[in-house]
Design goal:
Elements lengths: L1 H12 L5 E5 L4 H16 L6 E8 L6 H15 L3 E5 L2 H8 L3 H20 L3 E3 L4 H13 L4 H4 L5 E2 L2 E2 L7 H10 L16 H16 L4 H30 E4 L3 E4 L8 H16 L7 H9 L7 E4 L2 E5 L4 E5 L2 H7 L10 E2 L5 E5 L5 E8 L12 E9 H6 L4 E4 L6 E4 L3 E4 H7 L12 E4 L2 E5 L3 E2 L10 E8 L1
Parallel strand pairs: 1-2, 1-4, 2-3, 4-6
Antiparallel strand pairs: 5-6, 7-8, 8-11, 9-10, 10-11, 12-16, 13-14, 14-22, 15-22, 16-19, 17-18, 19-20, 20-21
Helix pairs in contact: 2-8, 4-5, 6-9, 6-10, 10-11, 11-12
Length: 472
């Protein structure tokens, strides 16, 4: 076993110069892991790899004190640092309102992260083995996981490595016997209380006896093949995200409606990713909700309220936003809502920040003084031209204001067209329309920046005026 790990596995997981934090409970799996890493370091001294052991005393079993001493003695014999942590795991679980197993696991990983920081470690090694992989695949299958979940445990995720993931429990026990390594047995693992224990103690043995004596190896292979597929799909999703994401903030994420034309394997992952970014829930949203979003087929006006999350579709895209997003935007002191109406003065910028959080500037300028595109304080999104003398004659009526009942644009060859119809034709979402500053003359709108210019006051041969919309 060691020779295979030494030649094929450990070089891929451990770079020269690494400092490894090994999580050692005292059981055969973690003891074997620590010994294999220590042995590998001796065999690869030129790579200058170092090792630190960390042990957590959960304060639950009477044997925990002896296990702590055993791990300390092992580290002393190997002349490597050993960090010991004690905490009241049962009371901690009650205080955070989680199951004992979940709370203890979260506490351990948080503790190990702190150990890594203090010891300047670059890798965290845990002793998950092939049996754990098989249990995980079955556990997730019973819960209805998709291919991402059935890919199981990864041999490496960032700084976390699992060198024994392809090794069976039997091989680990044999290694401990051959190397005369002391280890402790946690008899609570032999009690069919938790679902994972039932899978290990009841379901897997039944599958081995009645269906496939090599079921553990078969499940390990299945996870590996699905992991290959998942890694490929993740690359495709990354590429699709760069192409189709139109907004990516902590509170709001947008995807183009054309994403609904993508294969379901990609679309479903984009939906999960968007929901995860907004909600902070690593697992994203449940399958039933992903199905609902996909079934909408990008229909404008569709919306769905989920726990802590709202999803809605407008002409621009499908939007994932925190449930309190609209309230936080409207109440934010950082949002620059212009105080309108105001006179439309030449040479002055009107600034505002829209409901998405994008900063804009709009203004009117004399053509002879108008700057080139490179001289603007941001990206020029819209530029329209008017007859300057006609605007000056009506200057006292000219103003920037928001939308009002009865507003319309005059279109050559058509006549007056209601603002509502203009917005609908331009596919501007209804909730965005009231906050767009308009260049108005009485009840007639001359220009909707970024949307449409009416046909009044076309630029003639005389003095001209240019309207400019800038995205900062």
């Amino acid at each position: 076993m060691y020779e295979k790990l030494k030649q094929q596995v450990l070089p891929q997981l451990i770079a020269p110069g690494s400092r490894i934090l090994a999580a050692v409970s005292g059981g055969p799996d973690s003891v074997a892991l620590a010994h294999i890493l220590w042995r590998y370091i001796q065999d690869r001294q030129e790579q200058k790899i170092t090792l630190v052991i960390t042990h957590v005393h959960h304060g639950v079993r009477e044997e925990s004190d002896d296990e702590e001493k055993m791990v300390q003695n092992m580290a002393r014999d190997w002349e490597i640092p050993c960090l010991i942590h004690r905490f009241d795991s049962k009371n901690y679980a009650k205080s955070v309102g989680k199951s004992f197993q979940t709370a203890a696991r979260e506490w351990r990983y948080a503790c190990w992260q702190e150990d890594m920081r203090k010891e300047n470690c670059t890798l965290l090694a845990t002793a998950h083995h092939l049996g754990d992989q098989a249990e995980t695949v079955l556990y997730r299958l019973l819960r209805g996981s998709g291919t991402a979940g059935l890919a199981g445990i990864y041999p490496q995720k960032g700084e976390l490595i699992r060198p024994l993931l392809t090794v069976t429990k039997e091989d680990i026990l044999e290694y401990c016997r051959n190397e005369k390594l002391p280890y402790a047995l946690d008899h609570s693992n032999e009690e069919p209380i938790y679902v994972r224990n039932k899978i290990r103690l009841q379901l897997l043995p039944e599958l081995q006896r009645e269906y496939n004596p090599k079921i553990i190896e078969a499940l390990g292979r299945t996870a590996e093949v699905l992991r290959w597929d998942e890694e490929y799909l993740e690359e495709e999703v990354q590429s699709a995200w760069k192409r189709w994401a139109i907004l990516d903030t902590e509170q709001r994420v947008g995807l183009c409606r054309t994403t609904f034309e993508l294969p379901k394997a990609i679309l479903s992952r984009l939906i999960r990713r968007a929901a995860t970014l907004v909600s902070g829930e690593p697992r994203g949203i449940a399958f039933q909700y992903v199905e609902q979003v996909m079934a909408s087929q990008g229909q404008v006006g569709w919306s769905q309220d989920l726990p802590g999350l709202n999803i809605e579709i407008d002409y621009q895209g499908v939007w994932f936003q925190r449930a309190d997003w609209g309230q936080s935007i409207n109440e934010s002191p950082d949002i620059l809502w212009p105080s309108l109406p105001v006179g439309a003065h030449w040479g002055e910028w009107l600034p505002w920040r829209d409901e998405v959080g994008v900063n804009w500037l709009v203004g009117l300028f004399c053509l002879e003084k108008e700057a080139g595109d490179d001289d603007y304080p941001g990206q020029c999104v819209d530029k329209v031209f008017f007859d300057g003398l006609d605007l000056i004659r009506n200057g006292e009526k000219l103003q920037w204001r928001y939308r009002q009942d009865g507003d319309c644009l005059w279109i050559a060859g058509l006549g007056h067209k209601s603002l509502k119809k203009v917005f609908q034709d331009a596919k501007v979402p209804a909730k965005h329309r009231p906050v767009i500053p308009l260049l108005a003359m009485g009840n007639e709108i001359l220009w909707i920046p970024g949307v449409k210019r009416g046909d009044r006051y076309p630029l003639g041969q005389g003095k001209g005026t240019v309207g400019v919309l800038i995205k900062c």
